[in-house]
TrEMBL record:
PANTHER family: MEMBRANE TRANSPORTER PROTEIN MJ0441-RELATED (PTHR43701), MEMBRANE TRANSPORTER PROTEIN YJNA-RELATED (PTHR43701:SF2). Belongs to the 4-toluene sulfonate uptake permease (TSUP) (TC 2.A.102) family. Keywords: Cell membrane, Membrane, Transmembrane, Transmembrane helix. Its main location: membrane. It is found in: Cell membrane; Membrane. The keyword Protein transport does not apply. This is Probable membrane transporter protein. It holds the Pfam family TauE. It is a multi-pass membrane protein. It comes from the Bacteria. The chain crosses the membrane at residues 6-35, 42-63, 69-90, 110-128, 148-178, 185-203, 215-233, 245-264.
Length: 265
């Protein structure tokens, strides 16, 4: 199972390098089901892994000038504050046992995994549906819908803090719609935002469980190795065509987690 976990880490990196995001959504299930790590600790580990891989993934976009720094700052600040606050105060405040329905007890771990599963299902829809990539040929002056950007940034930050996922599937449409960014620039800017808020959220971790930093470094290294494989493959394979297939896989995983955490307990 441990070997399968490291192989899965590489696969997550490949997905990020090949399709430009979405791979991080599998990080928590990999840590919980393959490495048998506690769900709360897994979300903390995921923040670091997602943050580190996003730093590497965003580098090529930055070199090509596809990162809008102003947008990253405006969207990123409320998101970073929200994720830090969530990891430092909200997650530790969630009681270990939340609700009992007969003999079935909804624990903190089960709640986080169910929330994560719902997020996976929502994310899978954005990957599966056919999107119309109509790039604007005439450059328009960038506009910011500040109230909606603030709200979106806070919501994404809280979700990231709770489940440890990057939330690129929420950030990218927000950047396109609310900040009027072209799609490629939205992807590059999204990776920078994900990197910053995930790593700062990890610093805000307030877990009583001691962390295995050597293990965390190994998994992150395998994921980063996968990114370079994904980037190399992206020159030969159209990642956009693989995205719906990956979306269906994420959907199946989301449904499996719900069944595993409720029926198969």
């Amino acid at each position: 199972m441990e070997i399968a976990g490291y192989v899965a880490s590489i696969f997550i990196g490949i997905a990020l390098g090949l399709i430009g995001g979405g791979g991080s959504i599998l990080t928590v299930p990999m840590l919980v089901y393959l490495f048998r790590i506690d769900a709360v600790l897994a979300t903390a580990y995921s923040l670091f892994i997602v943050g580190a891989t996003s730093v590497v993934g965003s580098f090529s976009y930055f070199i090509k000038g596809l990162v809008n720094v102003k947008t990253a700052v405006i969207f990123g600040i409320p998101s970073i504050v929200a994720v830090y606050f969530t990891r430092a105060y909200i997650v530790p405040a969630i009681p270990h046992e939340i609700l009992a329905v007969g003999e079935f007890v909804i624990t903190k771990n089960i709640l986080l995994m169910l929330l994560f599963a719902v997020l996976m299902i929502v994310a899978s829809y954005s990957m599966i549906k056919k999107t119309k990539h109509h790039q604007e040929k005439v450059a328009k002056k960038q506009q910011f819908n500040y109230p909606l950007i603030l709200i979106e940034g806070i919501v994404v930050g809280i979700l990231t803090g709770l489940v440890g996922a990057g939330g690129g599937f929420l950030i990218i449409p927000a950047l396109v719609i609310l900040s009027k960014l072209p799609m490629k620039e939205a992807v590059g800017t999204s990776l920078v935002i994900i990197a910053a808020k995930s790593l700062i959220g990890f610093l805000g971790e307030n877990s009583e469980t001691p962390m295995d930093y050597l293990f965390l470094a190994k998994v992150t290294a395998f994921a980063i190795f996968g990114i370079f494989i994904g980037m190399a493959l992206s020159k030969k394979i159209d990642g956009a065509k693989l995205k719906p297939i990956f979306g269906w896989f994420v959907l199946i995983m989301g449904i499996y987690i719900i069944i595993k955490e409720t029926i198969l307990q």
